[in-house]
Description:
The complex is a heterotrimer of chains A (302), B (383) and C (305). Chain A is mainly alpha-helical. Chain A has helices at residues 2-13, 15-25, 27-36, 47-73, 84-89, 95-133, 138-150, 153-171, 178-199, 203-212, 217-228, 230-246, 249-253, 259-266, 271-301. Chain A folds into 3 domains: 1-44, no CATH class; 45-82, no CATH class; 93-301, MetI-like fold. Chain A contains 15 helices and no strands. The radius of gyration of chain A is 25 Å and the shape is globular. Chain B is an alpha/beta fold. The longest helix of chain B is centred in the first third of the chain and has 26 residues, at 2-27. Mean pLDDT of chain B is 87; it is low at 1-33. Chain C has 13 helices and no strands. Chain B binds chain C through residues 101-105, 108, 126, 128-129, 132, 193, 196-197, 199-205, 208, 239, 242-245, 247, 249-250, 253-255, 367-368, 370-372, 374-375, 378-380, 382-383, and chain C through 74, 77, 130, 133-134, 137-138, 141-144, 164-165, 167-169, 246-253, 257, 260-261, 263-272.
Amino acid sequence: MSAGVEDVRASGTSEESTTPLRAVGRPEAVARRALGRTPRVGAAPSRATSTIVLVLAGVFFLVPIAAMVEFSLRQGRTGSYTLQHYAAVLDPAQEYAYDGLFQGTLNSLAICAITVLIVLLVLLPTMILVELRYPALRRALEFVCILPITIPTVVIGVGFLPVYSVIARLVGSDAWSLAFAIGIIVLPYAYRPIAVNLQGLDVAMLSEAARSLGAGWGTVMVRVLVPNLRRGILASCFITIAVVLGEFTIATFLSRTTFQTALVLIQHTDPYVAVIFALLALVFGFVLLLVIGRLGAVRRRA
Amino acid sequence: MNKRHLAGAALLAVSAVALAACSSSASGTTPSASAISHADALTATSADDFGGMDGLVAAANAEGQLNVITLPPSWANYGKIIQGFEKKYPKIHINSANPDGSSADEVAAARSQKGQSTAPDVFDLGTAVMDENLDLLAKYKVQNWKDIPDDFKDPDGVWYYDYTGLMSIGYDSSVITTPPKTFADLLKPEFKGKVAIKGDPTQANEAASAVYLAALQNGGSADDIQPGIDFFQKLKQAGNFLATLPTQATVASGETPVVIQWSYNNLAWGAGSSAGNPNYTTVIPTGSPALGSYYNQAINVDAPHPAAARLWEEWIYSPEVQNLYLAAGAYPATLEAMKKNGTVDSSVLAKVGDAPKDFVQLTSDQAAKAGQLLSQKWAAAVG
Amino acid sequence: MTLAARTARARGARDAGTEPSRRRPDLGWLGLAPFSVYVVLFLLLPAALAVGSGFFTRDGAFTLANLAAFGNPIVLKDFLDSFWLSAVTAVLGAVFGATICYALLRARPDGLLRSVVDAGSSVLAQFGGVMLAFAWIATIGSQGLVTVLVAQLTGIESLGGLGGPSLYTVAGLIPVYLYFQVPLMVLSFMPAMEGLRQAWAEAAATLGATRATYWRRIAMPILAPAFFGCAILLFANAFSSFATAAALIDQGGIVPLRIFSSLSSETVLGADNLAGVLALGMVVVMVVLMAAYGLLQRRAARWQR
């Protein structure tokens, strides 16, 4: 028991120094570490469990994609395989549709950027402010943020129409203005990871500590809270980008060309090309987010 | 900050394009055919109001854009029709919105986007929806107006029939070895889990038309579609009805080997197109009158590009495009006139076969009544 | 730490450091303004317009007639089917997703595996519509990759419950929905899982707690609010999901399909105001659910004290 007490005290001073102390004090802990080689005693699963879970999940998610790949290689119903459908993608007859796809992708990327800004500059400060100063409003905020998902997009799309006839008069009918509507669609998904991250953080204590050291509110936000909320913010931005790249209904309702509406147009020409483009869309989104994620990780380590 | 730059750049680009369009149209315009004002174009009832076709083309070029809506490239050859227009009038860019939408979506877009540059310019409407929204349509008569039979058009040029298909059964002959001749054949065990229709009949006209033909096949009529609902209930009970949305992909993968839909769509999924399934065969069921349904062309009364919209209608009724419809298996409105004046592509006509002299088409009253019955009975019949 | 304790702490901290806020008492409210204005203009206004449309006739006169839809057995069955489909996929999605998060605790937060999972989850969480439907048709449809493989390996012609027409029922949507529900859970819940401090596990271990005890007595109570919050998000996500269902089950079946059909029907005209009433029904279901969740959370907070 005394060894245990000592451990707690030691771990309170420095994480580095706990290891040798533990090695003396708690054989099970040492054994567990040696076996699992994990820094997260008690929390992390064993390597075997972790591997099994991830492999099963990988199979569940990869098999339908593999089925699509398999279909895209089929030569009709003959049972043999061919690459000709991939060659058809490069068919000059598709050029007209590609024009739209290119424009749609540019539009979607612009919408992505603005929507992420809405999340970072409008939603995030509000969430922190509520956590810090108006905890009583927390539930109301949660409700407001989850509300958009409860109203089917086709319905809220109808509600957006009169709003957008005003917007079109103010800023024109360019595609980027869709970001205001999509920012709302994104709310439920963007809110949750940040909220979850906030729950695990003592925001009041952190900010008071920083304040007492003379930091202004801006510094508290940028230098103290945002770094601590990094994971939640990153997850929010990821899902935001994914929502924008996947959004179809509102763009259709308002007749704007985006990545998805252009894809749907292309998909009409040929079933194999349709599947190939669906796969390309997945790969495009995946690579885009992976690059953003890796850039974030590298910058943090540097 | 980025946002503003982006918007600024977009504005610059747009104005540059507009300038270019203006200058080019100005240089290519003869004095007699100078582009007329937007307001005049909105009320123009024929190309003559533009000073002839040259004036119409010049005015349309000056607009530089055309918004079409719910025209899937695989539907009745619209892919080629749109491409052909852009090739013939390279200064006009076509924006194709909501290819999977319904006729109701077309009028909804026109109403909600009224006054915006994204609103649809032209419509391709089913009759039932159109009759409820005549206030949205502008009067216009194409150059070969007389080629459209009188009962195919509004005397003032508010709307005009464009093309019709016939309800047909498409099937994969590598899976279905005895070709179905009538709807009754579809009840056989060979069709277990194989027969699909194009959507929910309470929602999509094409799916509802499958029910209407089923009614004709089973002793019903355009006034009495109950036998059609009963037929699909039997099909469901036999385990033959597949309650999923067939696409070209599900036909190609073999999941939906039998699809009841418009002939031009079944043909487009078969050997007719390069990527279609060569074994996919289209039959018009025998044993009852055929069922067709003309789609109508019309111009948005508030079209953001009124001249381009009118030029589009001229293009649609040109023999070139009417033959494109025919090549897809859709019978164009001017077919009889084209046969008389020799502009019909005879090799295509020989391949597709002549239009049946008598096929049933529901009037809008009959369609409304049928729709009501479907909304009451359909879900229970196949649920 | 319980919710109540945390709130109390926050309140205390605020009282202790009130000087700046006392000098400028308006600033905080001003900070809420941008979000409030945005939400009013782009959420509450459109939502009110959309839901409100259910209470007007096409000619603009006020009516309650559309509420009669809730007496229609078909509509009620749609709501019931929507509810249980959402509930099942939310529970399964939350459990599977949390398990994956748990398995990911071993991976380095900056490692490649985590980046791959993050990017993959984000993309898959928003993958839907005709193409997701087709992916599953190509997998477990009657001619699907898995169906055919199983048939070749076992000699069983049809995959029974999986293959063929049963994919095109409401129950058949479950695996398909999980395909976007699980990634959404991973994405939403991972920050909570990572919030578990190493020190807590170590403290528990040094006090002699087994791993099971640590999870049962410490980790799970801490994670519970986040878990249920995420599960509600999943429920709502499935509840309003539309494009995938439309592509798979063609003949009605869930509420969003009925709403879409009443909005864009070519055959049954003039039913578009019904959509508003049905949407109101969906909002009511969500409000009731959120209220129940709030009650549960307050109870839980009391127990934890």
